[in-house]
Amino acid sequence: MTEAWKEKLRARAFTALTKKAAFGNDIDLSEFVTEGTRTATVTEEIQRRSLEVGVDISQRKAGTYLQLDHSVLLSQLASKVQGLELMPTDLALEKYDWLRDYYWKALSVEQDKYTAIAELKRTKGYFIRSAPHEKIERPVQSCLYIESEGVLQAPHNIVIAEEGSELNIVSGCTTGIKTKRAAHLGISEFYVKKGATLVFTMIHNWGEETYIRPRTGIIVEEGGTFISNYILIKPVRDIQSYPTAYLKGKNASAKFYTILYASKDSIVDLGNRILLMDEGTTGESVFKVVATGSAKVYNRGQIFGQNKGTKGHLECRGLMLCPTASITAIPELVAEHSETELSHEAAIGKLQEEQLNYLMARGIHPDQAIGVLVKGFLDPGLPGLPDSLQKEIRSRLSLMEKAPSGKKEPC
Amino acid sequence: MLLDVSGLRVSVDGKELLRSVDLAVGRKEVIAVMGHNASGKTTLALTLAGFPQYKVTAGRILFEGKDVTSLSIDERARLGIALAFQSPPTIRGIRLGHMISLAGGVNPWTPKPGDDLTLAEKMLEKVKLDPAKYASREVNVGFSGGERKRAELAQIFAMKAKLMILDEPDSGVDIDSLKIVGNSLREHFETHDCSIMIITHHRHILQYLRPTRIHILSEGRVVATGNYDELMPKIEELGYERLLTEMGKHD
Prior knowledge:
The complex is a heterodimer of chains A (411) and B (251).
Chain A: H1 4-15, H2 44-52, E1 63-68, E2 71-77, E3 84-88, H3 89-95, H4 113-120, E4 126-130, E5 140-146, E6 152-153, E7 156-161, E8 166-175, E9 181-184, E10 187-192, E11 197-205, E12 209-212, E13 215-220, E14 225-232, E15 238-241, E16 244-247, E17 253-262, E18 267-276, E19 282-291, E20 296-305, E21 310-320, E22 326-335, E23 340-350, H5 353-360, H6 366-378, H7 387-399
Parallel strand pairs in A: 1-5, 4-7, 5-8, 6-9, 7-10, 8-11, 9-12, 10-13, 11-14, 12-15, 13-16, 14-17, 15-18, 16-18, 17-19, 18-20, 19-21, 20-22, 21-23
Antiparallel strand pairs in A: 1-2, 3-4
Helix pairs in contact in A: 1-4, 5-6
Chain B: E1 3-12, E2 15-25, E3 30-34, H1 41-49, E4 55-63, E5 66-67, H2 73-79, E6 81-84, E7 91-95, H3 96-103, H4 119-126, H5 131-134, E8 138-139, H6 145-158, E9 163-167, H7 175-191, E10 195-199, H8 203-209, E11 213-218, E12 221-226, H9 228-246
Parallel strand pairs in B: 3-10, 3-11, 6-9, 9-10
Antiparallel strand pairs in B: 1-2, 1-4, 4-5, 7-8, 11-12
């Protein structure tokens, strides 16, 4: 029998089933498949595609979660790892009654039709928790993988970094090489407790006909730090996401770094909202995007300065490789306290011919020179990332310089 | 002859900047091109390097007997023409060490077997830039004048160019850097099969390289040519204007 609290959530979800999202195109999800169980093993292709999004299944890291369509293939910790929990959210909700206090608490189930569908058609998701004062050195990795054609994957993830703990998560989302049409609604709730640090790195590598609508809420308590690194390099049909960070405790901070190579006819609508609620909280969002082909990119950003000594900064740097692409930066600064400092800067332009000529004067072929400059422009230098992952991201960017995506696409 | 330029006329945006330049550089030779500001020196350098905004309207450029007049910048560079820029751009996100490797034909991110992965380090050492400090710096970001010029040399040394065109490698450089620039150029020239065309305003850098000939450019033309020992003292004594007037080359 379904428990009452779940029924209440479902009832709320039903009320939002036709509610359009605040941003982005309205996607008809009625034809996508939300049921079915896979008993597949981890194939070589799954391993390879996972690796492309930074998830190395052959190494357990601190822990590994792998979800294929609607089924959990892996959910395990490495041996000797202490102070860390990793399990499918379903199991965690069964195991811990208290987890209901975190479920749909960082964002609302009736936010829009996507949150509603995600609750009604929920397909697993992971629960990760670092125990108080535990410093988990190796990253925890998760891979949300869509293999079957027409699948709608809707995992609900909950991450809790308990007081004084440190947690580093690498999450890769990808589709199988032959998967064309798919949809993904990932619900993620992050709770960063007093003095804790959570670094969350997400690498997306979707199929070209995949619709993505992640919904994310983050709550950071006193002295806590949340760092999000988001990387999207491959084309996608349509993605829209707008995580909100609530900085509820003194001196809490949230930083979002986005690296984006938008190509072909991708529609990419990304940004984040930061609420500087308590004294001395700080928020930063840095968005670096290269737009080529006929990609359409929107970078939204909103920072609310609501208390004394708060600081927020939005930054968008765009590089246009094709006149048929577009980048729209929409920064909003909302000062609701006289002692808040908010700033934004945005600069969008084309590749500098002077730089291109400079590289060519060193004997570098123009295609390679463009790739090198684009790579340099996007070069992460992301804070809070372990060296190994930093290196991996750099090497992935460097592939652009010889891969077709590194070449000037026909405009 | 390594480089043979004849009857070269060059325009930018319809304005003629070089008016029938004839000039040659032999193998293992250093020549200097001098002249007052806006005489066409940098135009000559950038035209020889193949910059597309410098339109060649007449004449031709032969390099090792091959007509390179219509080749692109990178094609000329790969043939062995290297330019050290007077004012190189800053490039954020690209490390100087990687740039030097790329100039030397080594892809630092996906090297091939046999690639010299210590190339950048060696080239930086040649110009006395500490590799531990400079290889990871972004190209020219926050560099002083002298650091920029030395970084330029490190790159063109890596290219193993047959002809190095040096556009004012001594401008904006302090005395210590000038010594390093001069000594490293002389050392490279003495140990490699290469030639140098150096553009400068000053005698100091030429003392390291002792060019066989000096060409003086004025208003887009080579108006005087002479050997170093003969012409340099006169330039120093009289300056370009009076020298050219006395030679009857100037109005």
